[in-house]
Every structure is written in structure tokens, then in C-alpha cells.
TrEMBL record:
Residues 10-286 form the Tr-type G domain. The chain holds residues 1 to 417 of 704 of the full protein. One of its GO terms (cellular component) is cytoplasm. This is Elongation factor G. Residues 291-310 have a biased composition (Basic and acidic residues). GTP binds at residues 19-26, 83-87, 137-140. Catalyzes the GTP-dependent ribosomal translocation step during translation elongation. During this step, the ribosome changes from the pre-translocational (PRE) to the post-translocational (POST) state as the newly formed A-site-bound peptidyl-tRNA and P-site-bound deacylated tRNA move to the P and E sites, respectively. Catalyzes the coordinated movement of the two tRNA molecules, the mRNA and conformational changes in the ribosome. Keywords: Coiled coil, Cytoplasm, Elongation factor, GTP-binding, Nucleotide-binding, Protein biosynthesis. Residues 208-235 form a coiled coil. Belongs to the TRAFAC class translation factor GTPase superfamily. Classic translation factor GTPase family. EF-G/EF-2 subfamily. GO terms for molecular function: GTP binding; GTPase activity; translation elongation factor activity. Residues 289-310 are annotated as: Disordered.
Length: 417
């Protein structure tokens, strides 16, 4: 069964959700977990009654996010959500979480737009080159203004903000969104308890002109970020859907454009299109460059070793968080960069120069933990049984030792007034 958990790298997303306090980070994360959980369950049981039971149970219990990384899945893709602390100050903890994720969703309050903390976390993510999607939350709030937020992303954050949606209405009149990629409208279905949370309809007459303008703007922004689209743009060609989606992905992964979507997380509006955007546009571990490190015996750190994001490479991983679980005791959260981590085997802590025995390996879901035998490159899991390893240390194959590039702590982020 070991191979079963070595995932196809292209089908993994390691993401963080970052925001200014109160913008809705917790609500958005909970709705993602709830929504993917419900749909996972639907697929598993084909039984409406048990799904309803599960929903009720979850609603009563509330989904709590107590783990440093939670695994869920959407459209056949495993999504590991890494808790990104929302500290005001520059901290080692924020840096560490940014180090292990490949992409992020930045959540904003549609009325407040860019706030000081969101600006700060944005700059930190810039430093680590983390590709992003912006989610303009609280579209139902009085004073919510999508376009103003987009302008702020450009002016205050210097982001090449690229709306891929146009909201239909705002505040209490927020009725849905127009998908500018597929030129379809999604209208919230307030009655739908399960499954699709919106109905797909044609773009309403009243919004046809605005939608076309926004689509033209999207293509123009994308042309600036992607040579292929620029060429088509200059030749007056309209890209097909099959050309547009990969181009947006290329531009997002390269950090040249930031797709913007919107919704109202606490009413579950816009969560599904957000999930689609995470899977379609944020990078997989396969899109990330090989990680560098040095030989632990080389104190000068002059020689550079490299580990490609592949399960065929020698094992290397970084411990990014240690937590105490009420049932399992000490759990070390690990990002595997290369090779395979197998339960019950010995690995080398290359910083301490000591071998450690890997106990059980778990995937932490929002409502259960799943024991797995092994896990491959690009994935994130919790490991039990590491006695002598602390946060920030490298674990590796004893016969192929490496110390992964040490956490660099650049100058503190400049305070934003
Ligand atoms: P966090 O501090 O970023 O984690 O924010 P929370 O998720 O705790 O949300 C802060 C507050 O905003 C809570 O009172 C939420 O109920 C509320 N909230 C979250 N999402 C929405 C939304 O879409 N619309 C409105 N009006 N309020 C929301």
C-alpha cells in the first residue's frame, strides 16, 4: 500500500491563507474545509441522508482548525492548507510557514481593502516569491467595493491584479459573479444545501457590456504578463479556453499576475469558484525549483547540493512545526521536498547529526487523522515519534545527507503606518 500515498505531484497544492485580522481568514478556511468535506462525503457515500447527518454533526461541533496543516481535496487534487500565522510582527513563525508553502490565498475585506497587516504579510510573501490569488471577501457588507479593492492591490501592493470575475451586485444585492474566463454567470442558489452552491446561467443582459469590458481588461493585463498571449493580442486573436487557462496559470506561478476573485465566505458564496482557482492557477510542488542545501560535513557551506521535487530522489524534508496533540502526543509537521518518507524507518537529522526513527505518519484532515505508510515528495504530513528534532531542522536519507538551505531571516519588514 506504500505507493498509494506517493501522490502525483501535479495533483498537490500546498497553500497558505493569509489576511489582516478580521478579514475572514478563519471563516474562509472553515468554509473550504466544510465545503470540500461535504462534497467528498457525497462522492463517497452517494447517500444524501448520511451526508446530511455529517453536515449536521460538523455544524454542531464546528470545524476547528487546530492543526499546523490540514489536508483536504478538490477536483481530484490534494490541498494541504498550512496555517499561516497572522502576526502583526515579523516573526520566524510566519517565515517558516511561507517557506513550506507553494502558493497562497490572500483574503481581504471588501469594504476595508488593503489594511496594514495584509500589506505586511504581502511583502513577506513577495520576499519568498509565493504566487498568490486574492479573495475579496465580505461582498455582502455595506460599503463593499470590488473595484476599489482591485485598485488598492495595484496601488498599495504593486500587484498586477487581474480580476477573473466580475461581481453581480454588492452588499445585500450581491447576487453572483461572472466568470470572465468562461464568460458564464454563477448566481448564488440560496436553497442549495449541498453540491453546487450556484446555478450556472448566461450573463445577464444588464451586465453584458461590463463583462465584455472586464474580459478585455483581463486579456490586456495577461498579455503584459505572458508572451504567448501578448503575441495573440497584437495579432488581434482571441485565446481559446484551452490557451487562456494555462496562460493564467503560467503568469500566476511566475508571480507576474495575481488573479482576483470575490465572495462572501460566511454564506458560502464564492467558495467553490475560489477552490477552482486554487487548483487551476496556484503551483504544484512540481512547478517549484529544486531545493538547495549543503553537505553537513562541509562547514563552509560552499558546495551546493540539490534535490529535485521527485519521489525518485534521495529523501529530504523540513520540520516546520512541532505541536502537542491531545491524543498522539508530540507531532512534527514535515514538508517532504524529495524522495519518500516511510513509517518505521530511520532518517538522519542532519543538523544534529543523529538518526531518528520515524514512528507513525499521519495525514491530518479536518474531521479525522489518517495513518499512512509512506508519503512522497511535495507532500505535507505529521510524524509521530521524532524525539530529538526541533523546528527548522532537516531530515534526510542517512546515506545521502543534506542540510536544506537554512532559513534566511532578512531585514524586518518595514512597519506600515
Ligand atoms: P480572521 O480574523 O481573518 O480569521 O476573520 P474571521 O474569519 O474570524 O472573521 C472575522 C469576522 O468577520 C467574523 O465576525 C465573521 O463572522 C465575519 N465574516 C467572515 N466572513 C464574512 C463575510 O463574508 N461577510 C460578512 N459580512 N462577515 C464575514
Amino acid at each position: 500500500m506504500a505507493a498509494k500515498n506517493v501522490l502525483d505531484l501535479a495533483k498537490v497544492r500546498n497553500i497558505g491563507i493569509m489576511a489582516h485580522i478580521d478579514a475572514g481568514k478563519t471563516t474562509t478556511t472553515e468554509r473550504i474545509l466544510f465545503y470540500t468535506g461535504v462534497n467528498h462525503k457525497v462522492g463517497e457515500t452517494h447517500d444524501g441522508a448520511s451526508t446530511m447527518d455529517w453536515m449536521k454533526e460538523e455544524q454542531e461541533r464546528g470545524i476547528t482548525i487546530t492543526s499546523a496543516a490540514i489536508t483536504t481535496s478538490w477536483n481530484d487534487t490534494t490541498i494541504n492548507i498550512i496555517d499561516t500565522p497572522g502576526h502583526v510582527d515579523f516573526t520566524v513563525e510566519v517565515e517558516r510557514s511561507l517557506r513550506v508553502l507553494d502558493g497562497a490565498v490572500a483574503v481581504f475585506d471588501a469594504k476595508e481593502g488593503v489594511e496594514p497587516q495584509s500589506e505586511q504579510v504581502w511583502r513577506q510573501a513577495d520576499r519568498y516569491g509565493v504566487p498568490r490569488i486574492c479573495f475579496v471577501n465580505k461582498m455582502d457588507k455595506i460599503g463593499a467595493e470590488f473595484q476599489r479593492c482591485v485598485d488598492m492591490f495595484r496601488d498599495r501592493l504593486g500587484a498586477n491584479a487581474m480580476p477573473i470575475q466580475l461581481p453581480i451586485g454588492a452588499e445585500s444585492d450581491f447576487k453572483g459573479v461572472i466568470d470572465l474566463i468562461r464568460m458564464k454567470a454563477y448566481v448564488w442558489n440560496d436553497e442549495a444545501a449541498l453540491g453546487e452552491m450556484y446555478d450556472t446561467v448566461e450573463i445577464p443582459e444588464t451586465h453584458a457590456e461590463a463583462a465584455q469590458e472586464a474580459r478585455d481588461q483581463l486579456l490586456e493585463t495577461l498579455a503584459d504578463a505572458d508572451d504567448e498571449i501578448m503575441e495573440m493580442y497584437l495579432e488581434g486573436q482571441e485565446p481559446t479556453l484551452e490557451q487562456l487557462v494555462p496562460a493564467i496559470r503560467r503568469a500566476t506561478v511566475a508571480g507576474k499576475a495575481v488573479p482576483v476573485v470575490c465572495g462572501t465566505a460566511f454564506k458560502n458564496k464564492g467558495v467553490q469558484p475560489l477552490l477552482d482557482a486554487i487548483v487551476e492557477f496556484l503551483p504544484s510542488p512540481a512547478d517549484v525549483e529544486a531545493i538547495e542545501g549543503h553537505d553537513p560535513k562541509d562547514e563552509t557551506e560552499a558546495t551546493t547540493l540539490e534535490r529535485k521535487p521527485s519521489s525518485d530522489e534521495p529523501f529530504s524534508a523540513l520540520v516546520f512545526k512541532i505541536m502537542s496533540d491531545p491524543h498522539l502526543g508530540k507531532l512534527s509537521y514535515v514538508r517532504v521536498y524529495s524522495g519518500v518518507l516511510q513509517a518505521g524507518t530511520q532518517v538522519l537529522n542532519s543538523i544534529k547529526g543523529r538518526k531518528e526513527r520515524v514512528g507513525k505518519v499521519y495525514r491530518m484532515h479536518s474531521n479525522k487523522r489518517e495513518e499512512i505508510g509512506s508519503v512522497g515528495a511535495g507532500d505535507i504530513v505529521a510524524v509521530m515519534g521524532l524525539k530529538d528534532t526541533t523546528t527548522g531542522e532537516t531530515l534526510c536519507d542517512p546515506s545521502n545527507p543534506i542540510v536544506l538551505e537554512s532559513m534566511t531571516f532578512p531585514d524586518p519588514v518595514i512597519e506600515v503606518a
